[in-house]
Specification:
With 86 residues, the chain is α/β, with parallel strands linked by helices. The chain contains one helix and seven strands, in the order E-E-E-H-E-E-E-E. The two termini are 26 Å apart.
Length: 86
């Protein structure tokens, strides 16, 4: 449940016992949502078609062979265990 504070516009997440959440997409926003929801106590399943997040700013070096594709990826399955579904 997300509650909006009408006095200052802030939002806060409150957990209802046994509540589960599915986050679709493993991009930056999806990962941030999954992490925040898990910290708030929700049971989170993250659904993504990939096991990594692509770091666009450094990807400019791939075409000129300064880095490899793998160097522009962070494999997030190791630091978000139990939340990933493909």
């Amino acid at each position: 449940m997300i509650v909006k504070n009408s006095s200052n516009g802030d939002t806060a997440m409150t957990r209802v016992a046994g509540q589960k959440v599915v986050v679709l997409g493993g991009g930056i926003a999806g990962l941030e949502a999954a992490i925040d929801l898990r910290k708030a106590g929700f049971s989170v399943t993250l659904v993504s078609n990939r096991k990594y997040i692509y770091i666009y700013p450094i990807s400019i070096w791939i075409p000129v062979h300064k880095i490899d594709f793998e160097d522009a990826c962070l494999h997030w399955t190791c630091w978000l265990p139990g939340m990933v579904s493909h």
